[in-house]
Amino acid sequence: MQAHDAGFNREQVVTVPLDAITYKKFDLVKQQLLANTLVQGVTGAQDVLGSHLDSVRYCILGRWGQKGSWTSTQLIVDHDYFIAV
Length: 85
Fold this sequence. Notes:
By secondary structure, the protein is α+β, with helices and mostly antiparallel strands. Helix content is 15%, strand content 19%. The chain has helices at 26-34, 81-84; strands spanning 54-61, 67-74. The chain is elongated, with a radius of gyration of 18 Å. It starts with 25 loop residues before the first helix and ends with a helix.
């Protein structure tokens, strides 16, 4: 992924961590950043892409008693995450 063309200039992406107080005002922070003509897009995510994503383990009990499980990761993002990035 690091060598692949991401479709955007990685040098022009800024990640701003929000603390327990500022994340509650994300919409206001987003509006203020978008008011700057130098900012093309603002989006949010629960974590930085590629860093310790939350893992979820799913277990299934099949019709005839067989068991299966799988692990998945999730990243909760703003509705326009892929468009803004």
